[in-house]
Specification:
Blueprint (H helix, E strand, L loop, with lengths): L1 H17 L6 E4 L3 E5 L8 E5 L6 H18 L4 E5 L5 H13 L3 E11 L13 E4 L3 H15 L3 H8 L9 E7 L2 E11 L2 E9 L8 H17 L4 E4 L5 H7 L2 E10 L1
Parallel strand pairs: 3-4, 9-10
Antiparallel strand pairs: 1-2, 2-3, 4-11, 5-10, 5-11, 6-7, 7-8, 8-9
Helix pairs in contact: 2-3, 4-5
């Protein structure tokens, strides 16, 4: 099932972040996975469904299990839910069930997959690509992410300004005239290249920079691992571009936060 490439790679990406931190917590429990970085940015203290849910009672049990886990650690957190794990009739009530347990709906993202990218529809701009590998490129990556995702820089630094992160994540920053304007990261696991944190400075958007750095990152991962299949979770702004690149929606990823 295609949706499992999306949800497995997503969980693996959070595990990659959590596993290198002293405060990190990675566990597989009954029907759920925990991948918590133990940071201020609650979206990176995450729980995931890890098996099919067939009843409301079962879903409530898994919500309570994660709630107890994070409350015991005093952390704000988020539940990342691939909706295909939930039985179809139950999906319509899922939001109310999560909110009943004080987990508010934050966003729903299309989970997308491309077995092979389509060629660009236009000539992409020339850029200099640098892999995230030192303090300068880490700073550029974090600054771009903070600006584009409206997250405090200190929160973004806490997650990504760490040498060990980049042993599992492959990050790239695209420069134009020496200025960092776009970035992305990939995590290759579970039979797919996961594309994350695609960010372009607002004044440089709609000029092909995001697509250029994204294609470069995917090409590098393909050379290293021999995998062509890629997955991502799309924002509304990025969705038309990803469709043009050959992605199709195979699931939805709903995020609920404490």
């Amino acid at each position: 099932m295609d949706f499992q490439f999306v949800e497995s790679n997503l969980r693996d990406s959070f595990r990659a972040l959590a596993s290198v931190r002293p405060s990190g917590d990675v566990q597989d429990l009954a029907g759920i996975s925990i991948a918590s970085a133990g940071v201020a940015f609650q979206m990176f203290n995450a729980a995931f469904l890890a098996a099919p849910v067939e009843s409301e009672t079962d879903l409530e049990r898994r919500i309570l299990q994660a709630t107890v886990h994070f409350n015991a650690r005093g952390l704000e957190w988020a539940y990342w839910v691939c909706t295909d794990w939930i039985e179809e009739k139950l999906r319509k009530r899922a939001r109310r069930i999560f909110e009943r347990h004080n987990l508010r709906f934050s966003v729903e993202l299309p989970g997308m997959i491309a077995d092979r990218l389509l060629p660009p529809e236009r000539n992409l701009p020339e850029m200099e690509f640098r892999r995230v590998s030192d303090q300068r490129t880490r700073t550029a990556f974090c600054t771009l992410g903070s600006l584009c995702f409206n997250v405090p820089l200190v929160w973004f630094n806490e997650v990504f300004d760490n040498d060990l992160v980049w042993k599992n994540f492959a990050g790239y920053v695209g420069y134009v005239g020496g200025e960092p304007v776009s970035s992305t990261a990939t995590v290759t696991s579970s039979g797919a290249i996961g594309v994350y944190n695609v960010a372009t400075l607002p004044r440089h958007q709609r000029q092909g920079y995001g697509e250029a750095v994204m294609r470069h990152a995917i090409q590098q991962a393909h050379r290293e691992f021999g995998i062509e299949r890629t997955i991502l979770q799309s924002t509304p702004q990025g969705f038309p571009l990803y469709v043009r690149m050959g992605y199709r929606t195979v699931t939805k990823v709903a995020v609920y936060s404490s």
